[in-house]
Amino acid sequence: MKFCQVCTSLSDIDKATEMARESINHKLAFCCWIRPKHMAMYPWKGELCEESEYEVVFKTNNVNLEQLTALIRGMHPYETPYIASFHGDILHVGYAQWAETIVT
User: Fold this and answer.
1) What's the CATH code of the domain at 32?
2) Which domain holds residue 33?
3) Are the C-beta atoms of residues 22 and 75 closer than 8 Å to each other?
4) Model pTM?
């Protein structure tokens, strides 16, 4: 099964949880990880910013990628959110079959 992981970062755990739940409730993701806080450093509008953020990883199929990205953009509180996708294959047949039942 072809799949992708879509990643974004948020500073608010409640918003991260809400976004993950909505993606699953709308059958756009079959699993989400909310990774522990990490430190992000980046230049923004002429200043060096240091923020504590949670990374959210959405597991989905390639068919739902566009709709999932739209959901993330629509719910994300950041002006310019990081949203990236990484594509691959699920190698365990049983897991792939289970995942397909969730997002199709």
Assistant:
1) 3.30.70.120
2) 2-103
3) yes
4) 0.92
